[in-house]
Amino acid sequence: MRVLGVDPGLTRCGVGVVDGVAGRPLTMVGVGVVRTSPDADLARRLVAVEEGIESWLDEYRPERVAVERVFSQHNVRTVMGTAQASAVAMLCAARRGIPVVLHTPSEVKAAVTGSGRADKAQVGAMVTRLLRLAAPPKPADAADALALAICHIWRSPAQNRLQEAVARHRPPAPSARPPKGRTA
Questions:
Q1: Is 141 labeled as catalytic in the residue annotation?
Q2: Active-site residue (options: 68, 107, 119, 144)
Q3: Do 100 and 67 touch, CB atoms closer than 8 A?
Q4: With 80 as the cut, is the pLDDT of residue 74 above it?
Q5: Catalytic, out of 19, 58, 107, 141
Q6: What confidence tens digit (pLDDT) does each residue in 36-48 have?
Q7: Which end is more exposed in the chain, N or C (fewer Cβ atoms within 10 Å of the end residue's Cβ)?
């Protein structure tokens, strides 16, 4: 499976592509950052993020896009920019029919390091080790994007089994027929 991980941000939006399946060695295919100027108009910055994500989708053709789930932070302005960049990434993938999955920061940290409270240095070190890289990707946003892709590759088999089990036990949908004794 090929996954594009996106660590959303307006100034630096981390992107990383990983190939692999759970239980097998993973391969980094590409890593980078889509950058925008903090001095630019917000609408222009969002277009720049969109153009960057589209370029990555064109070049690497992922089967899934894993985006960090935005959560409430103390700085509302930061959260808004992160949420806007996240929405752009989801829109780009959805426009192409590529499934999008969201993972929380603690899910990603736990999947990659074993601890949901790991710091950025620990995540970078494990990404480096898991992908057999010479050095941690810089900046940390790039390493975080790879961690998102790794998390999804490792978690997707269990998530798929859970979704299938839920679907098997879901009651059948009601029919669209009008109630008895009434005509349309």
A1: yes
A2: 68
A3: yes
A4: no
A5: 141
A6: 999 999 999 999 9
A7: C
